[in-house]
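Quick one, probably user error.
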């Protein structure tokens, strides 16, 4: 039973119907469908200007992700596109993605900056996180990723990278913190991005300004970022394809979530996925996320990530679902509020048109999500236009979200 946006009671039909408060409650007949906590997608690069479909064929022809990046493509390609885009165009693209997230059962997601890499553009992205939080029903958790790569204008000169790190630690991080625009600070610590030493300086500056650390770790090479993340009490270390035994042990002993992003390996056609079984068996807290971004994981479908987690990472359907809900919530430090169906938690639900929860990952590349509820309100229903969807585009900036749970008339 849901009340005032929260879960008021959980139990069998007979138990819940016997409660005095259930008299007068509106009943939604789900006809034996499967109800999960809404997905918590704890790693996305929500705000970007465009796809990188032009790089897709190069990848298929065998040019590696790192080679494309070295030639000025990759993240820098998205940076160029974002800097040229208006805030309005970025907002439109993100708003449409958010409706899609809801349609796949996601109710809370993290979003990183990192395609601006210059003060104004980074602040523009983080400002959009804030505005989108007011304009649509899903919760967006904001992460500052100014340390995505060193931007072009700082490259090729002596001391360029160090100067950019100073811009991050002396200007951007203090400003982001002062304006309350992010909760986390992330660093892409890898070959071609930031070294472990630079990552430490950046994450420390973040901590000093109240931004909790998280890190892109061991994605392309083993950089030691996991060790650093654990040492700094990071909320999560993400990717982890190249972790070694010591990293696995360190994660297992720590409170840092190990966030796996199998969409990247699938999309890039890589043979090496993160060692999910070893991490789980060692006792690490494993979360799953889409990494929705234009360069390594152009998907926002958590059900697809569940399918990959089961078939490629050898996680059981139950492990994958826990990783995509309560452990994702933990990675975002929101496990007290979302991520499970417990009395007192937010009424964030995803309903799937299947008869068995294992069918959610079993069907792949298709969407069995039938209804999504955020804080007790229907924000998506298959084949029906909800009030929120109807109002898209027409929502006054910062205004009331015109949810409408009423059945459509006519
Ligand atoms: O999580 N690894 C760094 N960042 C993204 C990729 C970003 C991009 O290629 O645009 C990731 O994989
Ligand atoms: Fe990422």
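Nope, works fine. Designed sequence:
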């Amino acid at each position: 039973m849901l009340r005032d946006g929260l879960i008021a009671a959980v139990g069998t039909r007979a138990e819940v119907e016997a409660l005095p408060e259930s008299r007068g409650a509106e009943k939604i007949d789900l006809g034996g469908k499967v109800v999960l906590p809404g997905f918590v997608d704890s790693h996305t690069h929500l705000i970007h200007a465009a796809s990188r479909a032009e790089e897709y064929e190069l990848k298929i022809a065998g040019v590696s992700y790192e080679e494309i990046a070295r030639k000025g493509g990759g993240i820098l390609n998205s940076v160029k596109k974002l800097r040229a885009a208006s805030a309005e165009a970025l907002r439109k693209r993100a708003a449409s993605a958010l409706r899609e997230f809801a349609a796949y059962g996601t109710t809370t997601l993290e979003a990183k900056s990192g395609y601006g890499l210059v003060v104004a553009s980074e602040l523009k992205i983080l400002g959009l996180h804030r505005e989108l939080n007011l304009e649509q029903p899903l919760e967006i958790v904001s992460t500052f990723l100014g340390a995505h790569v060193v931007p072009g204008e700082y490259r090729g000169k002596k001391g360029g990278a160090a100067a950019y790190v100073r811009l991050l630690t002396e200007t951007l991080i203090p400003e982001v913190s002062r304006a309350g625009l992010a909760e986390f600070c992330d660093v892409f610590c890898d070959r071609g991005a930031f070294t472990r030493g630079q990552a430490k300086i950046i994450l420390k500056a973040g901590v000093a300004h109240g931004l909790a650390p998280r890190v892109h770790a061991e994605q392309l090479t083993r950089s030691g970022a996991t060790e650093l993340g654990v040492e700094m009490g990071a909320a999560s270390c993400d990717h982890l394809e190249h972790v070694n035994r010591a990293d696995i042990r360190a994660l297992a002993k720590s409170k840092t979530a190990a966030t796996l992003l199998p969409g990247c390996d699938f999309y890039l056609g890589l043979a090496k996925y993160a060692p999910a079984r070893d991490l789980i068996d060692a006792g690490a807290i494993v979360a799953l996320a889409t990494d929705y971004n234009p360069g390594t994981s152009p998907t926002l479908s958590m059900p697809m990530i569940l399918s990959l987690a089961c078939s490629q990472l050898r996680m059981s359907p139950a492990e994958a679902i826990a990783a995509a809900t309560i452990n994702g919530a933990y990675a975002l430090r929101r496990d007290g509020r979302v991520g499970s169906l417990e009395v007192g938690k937010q009424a964030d639900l995803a309903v799937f048109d299947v008869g068995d929860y294992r069918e959610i990952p079993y069907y792949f590349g298709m969407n069995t999500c039938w209804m999504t509820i955020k804080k007790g309100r229907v924000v998506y229903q298959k084949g029906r236009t909800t009030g929120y969807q109807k109002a898209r585009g027409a929502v006054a900036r910062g205004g009331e979200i015109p949810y409408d749970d009423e059945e459509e008339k006519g």
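The longest helix spans residues 160-178.
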